[in-house]
């Protein structure tokens, strides 16, 4: 479980191992720092002073732990969760854009109800979890598993709920499901087979701003669903963007061109899904694995 690096103090190990083991089994909630930030925390247990250092750009759940005992230092690395990484996502957008279908595509499941309807289908938030996805991440030369969590949400605006009801229910669900580990990305879902007119995305952008705060652009990517229809009409991604409305282009520019074309009917195929997940992982990596909405444990 623990990798001990210092040989000079190996004679102290027998007495330290129980302490180390118990520390490494502590709940993650005790560790409140974020990966990608050079912060450190101390924790005093008995006479020992412990410093926890996050391992930047690996995962927020891997840490270097240094223990000071009688003036000597022992360094250990948590291994508990290092062969696994989770990403937390939320889908947001107008009604019938394919939010629930996109959630299913990302999870490789049919957890969320998704169907054509003249009124909004999804009325409450629900969390879907993927199994262990292999073949996408390698860390320290070893294969790691990816776990994806997606929060499906009611549309904004909605045919039966007020904007306030949607906003409050999504806010509460984000705090409930992602308060401990934080949110990696909000996915603003738009239909690629419909033009985006001025002010049309402003409701969703406003909701995202209200939920995520001033850093929303760093934590938002656009999912352009119905890519199959755009393709049927003869558009490649490049020609589509050449003909896209200035409203869409300026939205994509404001989120630093984090966009993905998605054919929800096709992404049932594992390879298609892995391409989409790899793009999302790249966005998250470029944002230094930062998270939002994490409860402070101070
Ligand atoms: N052709 C095509 N149809 C899609 C795609 N994504 C979603 N759909 C269809 O669009 C319809 C609505 O999909 P949903 O996933 O229910 O959309 P939603 O945004 O969750 O809808 P609400 O919950 O009602 O707001 C369904 O009939 C889906 O099959 C896509 O990429 N291509
Ligand atoms: Mg839905």
Ordered list of secondary-structure elements with their pairings:
Layout: E1 2-4, H1 13-24, E2 41-45, E3 48-54, E4 63-69, E5 72-78, E6 84-93, H2 99-107, E7 126-129, E8 133-139, E9 142-152, H3 163-178, E10 185-191, H4 202-212, E11 220-225, H5 227-232, H6 237-243, H7 246-254, E12 259-261, H8 270-286
Parallel strand pairs: 6-9, 6-10, 10-11, 11-12
Antiparallel strand pairs: 1-5, 2-3, 3-4, 4-5, 7-9, 8-9
The structure holds guanosine-5'-triphosphate and magnesium ion.
Guanosine-5'-triphosphate (GTP) binds next to helix 2 and helix 5.
Short synopsis of the structure:
The protein has 298 residues and is of the alpha/beta class.
């Amino acid at each position: 479980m623990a990798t001990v690096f210092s040989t000079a103090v190996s004679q102290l190990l027998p007495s330290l191992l129980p302490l180390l083991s118990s520390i490494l089994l502590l709940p993650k909630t005790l560790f409140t720092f974020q990966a990608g930030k050079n912060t450190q925390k101390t924790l005093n247990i008995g006479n020992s002073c412990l410093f926890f250092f996050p391992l930047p750009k690996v995962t927020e759940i891997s840490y270097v732990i240094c223990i000071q005992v009688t003036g000597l230092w022992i360094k250990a690395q948590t291994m508990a969760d290092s062969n696994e990484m989770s990403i937390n996502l939320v889908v947001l957008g107008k009604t019938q854009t394919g939010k629930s279908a996109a959630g299913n595509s990302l999870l490789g499941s049919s957890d969320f109800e998704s169907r054509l309807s003249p009124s909004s289908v999804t009325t409450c938030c629900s969390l879907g979890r993927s199994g262990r996805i292999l073949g996408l991440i390698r860390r320290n030369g070893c294969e790691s598993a990816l776990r994806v969590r997606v929060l499906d949400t009611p549309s904004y605006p909605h045919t039966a709920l007020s904007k306030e009801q949607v906003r409050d229910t999504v806010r509460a669900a984000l705090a409930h499901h992602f308060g401990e580990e934080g949110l990696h990305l909000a996915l603003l879902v738009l239909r690629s087979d419909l033009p985006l007119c001025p002010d049309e995305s402003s409701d969703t952008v406003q909701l995202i701003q209200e939920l995520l705060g001033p850093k929303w652009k760093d934590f938002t990517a656009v999912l352009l669903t119905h890519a199959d229809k755009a393709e049927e009409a003869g558009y490649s991604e490049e020609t589509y963007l050449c003909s896209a409305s200035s409203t869409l282009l300026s939205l994509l520019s404001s989120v630093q061109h984090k966009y993905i074309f998605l054919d929800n009917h096709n992404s049932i195929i594992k390879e298609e899904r892995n391409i989409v997940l790899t793009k999302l992982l790249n966005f998250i990596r470029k944002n230094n694995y930062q998270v939002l909405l994490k409860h402070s444990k101070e």
